[in-house]
């Protein structure tokens, strides 16, 4: 912190504040490093050794629709969903992808190309929606799909795909489809359940939608492994998604698949050992540990915003979690911060407090809101709380 330097106001004039900051903190991206300390303790257990002669082939399992998915990864994913109870994998097809980012595009390809419409199908999501959907939909200016904007405002009598993100990125809300069925267009759904894990939200039901996307990035925090998976009811859609991944990357790294399968095995084994009577301690269980971290961050954030009416964050309803057997609220990976003293929350935080966040307009919403990540490093989160507390105190005097 460097005290007593002049700050530039939005209108270009300068004012003297008692405090300014000499470095930026970046809370824009949702890089999930918050869970790193937990995995540091599991470093040895999660280690995988891959010999020079192993994993040469493109192929993994020619009997499976997703022929490049390794059977050990498929089994690990099924085991994980059975443990958590968040998604039904029985009689469903699993397709692995390079993150759920690739699977989202594979899903658009599969659903658009099996639509009866000759025109590009409209892809919509209720605002505020995950900022990347729009660009991922339109990047290739495809002739089969195009971004259609806010699902709440969709009123065309044309085919559409609605993306339902629950809990939602950026605002943490629990969601279902919203497009008005009276519009008459043929509608398909993609459920992006990246955050439907116990550290972020109570597991209230076993999801069993036609096409669900999950990502290892947000489940355990191993975003760098780039593993996501889709759980798909219809075999033809699963085949088309597999074809898309074949066309764009001829499969998914087997080193990554092996590593992810191992980490899931370690995670699930610790629950088995816990149930077997104390072979694992409760604090060693991943979802218990990560849930506590998220809860603590939210409690601190709420404490700071309670003191200061200039910023506010949404409230979430309580629900019973079938996984923890407790009632709790949602602790989203992002805070959807409303800045009550400036029209542009992103630029206010950047200029005044040197905090980088993503503004509401990127999510099809109001610029008075901004999204900030709660998955970053402890130091950055602590510094963020300090800065908004200092800011509030200065305005009080
Ligand atoms: N969907 C949502 C809602 C996300 O927040 C993210 C990551 N920020 C993704 C998908 C993409 O995740 P991945 O790392 O698996 O590509």
Automatic annotation (TrEMBL):
* Cross-referenced SUPFAM superfamilies: PLP-dependent transferases (SSF53383)
Query: Which keywords are on file for this protein?
Result: Aminotransferase, Pyridoxal phosphate, Transferase
- Gene3D superfamilies in alphabetical order: Aspartate Aminotransferase, domain 1, EGF-like, alliinase, Type I PLP-dependent aspartate aminotransferase-like (Major domain)
InterPro entries in the record, alphabetically?
Answer: Alliinase_C (IPR006948), Alliinase_N_sf (IPR037029), Ethylene_sulfur-biosynth (IPR050478), PyrdxlP-dep_Trfase (IPR015424), PyrdxlP-dep_Trfase_major (IPR015421), PyrdxlP-dep_Trfase_small (IPR015422)
Tell me the cofactors it needs: pyridoxal 5'-phosphate
Q: Which GO terms describe its biological process?
A: amino acid metabolic process
**One Pfam family, short name:** Alliinase_C
Keyword check for Transferase: yes
Q: Does the keyword Signal apply?
A: no
Q: Which domain of life is it from?
A: Eukaryota
The entry lists its GO molecular-function terms as:
carbon-sulfur lyase activity; transaminase activity
Alliinase C-terminal domain residues are 25-389
| Family indicated by similarity | Belongs to the alliinase family.
Sorted alphabetically, which PANTHER family does this protein's record hold? BIFUNCTIONAL ASPARTATE AMINOTRANSFERASE AND GLUTAMATE/ASPARTATE-PREPHENATE AMINOTRANSFERASE-RELATED, TRYPTOPHAN AMINOTRANSFERASE-RELATED PROTEIN 1
Subunit structure, interactors included? Homodimer.
Q: What is the name of this protein?
A: Alliinase C-terminal domain-containing protein
């Amino acid at each position: 912190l460097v005290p007593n330097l002049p700050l530039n106001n939005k209108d270009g004039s300068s004012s003297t504040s008692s405090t300014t900051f000499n470095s930026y903190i970046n809370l824009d991206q949702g890089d999930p490093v918050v869970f790193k300390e937990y995995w540091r303790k599991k470093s040895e257990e999660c280690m995988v050794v891959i010999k020079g002669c192993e994993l040469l082939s493109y192929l993994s399992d020619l009997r499976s629709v997703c022929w490049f998915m390794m059977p050990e990864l498929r089994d690990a994913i099924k085991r994980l969903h059975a443990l958590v109870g968040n998604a039904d994998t029985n009689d469903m097809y699993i397709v692995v992808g390079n993150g759920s980012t690739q699977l989202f595009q594979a899903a658009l390809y599969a659903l658009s190309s099996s639509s009866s419409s000759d025109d590009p199908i409209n892809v919509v999501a209720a605002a505020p929606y995950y900022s990347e959907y729009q660009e991922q939909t339109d990047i290739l200016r495809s002739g089969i799909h195009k971004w259609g904007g806010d699902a709440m405002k969709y009123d065309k009598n044309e085919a559409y795909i609605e993306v339902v993100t629950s809990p939602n990125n950026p605002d943490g809300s629990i969601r279902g489809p919203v497009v008005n069925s009276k519009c008459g267009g043929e509608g398909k759904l993609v459920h992006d359940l990246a955050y439907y894990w116990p550290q972020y939200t109570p597991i209230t039901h076993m999801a069993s939608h036609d096409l669900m996307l999950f990502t290892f990035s947000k489940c355990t925090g191993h975003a760098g492994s780039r593993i996501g998976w889709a759980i798909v009811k219809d075999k033809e859609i699963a085949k088309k998604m597999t074809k898309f991944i074949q066309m764009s990357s001829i499969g998914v790294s087997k080193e990554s698949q092996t590593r992810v399968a191992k980490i899931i095995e370690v995670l699930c084994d610790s629950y088995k050992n816990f149930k077997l009577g104390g072979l694992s301690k409760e604090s060693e269980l991943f979802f218990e540990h990560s849930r506590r971290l998220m809860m603590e961050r939210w409690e601190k954030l709420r404490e700071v915003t309670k003191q200061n009416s200039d910023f506010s964050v949404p409230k979430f309803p309580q629900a019973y979690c079938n996984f923890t057997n407790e009632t709790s609220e949602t602790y989203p990976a992002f805070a959807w911060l409303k800045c009550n003293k400036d029209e542009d929350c992103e630029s206010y935080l950047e200029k005044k407090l040197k905090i980088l966040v993503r503004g509401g307009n990127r999510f099809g919403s109001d610029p008075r809101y901004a999204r900030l990540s709660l998955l970053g490093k402890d130091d950055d989160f602590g510094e963020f709380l300090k800065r908004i507390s200092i800011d509030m105190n200065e305005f009080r005097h």
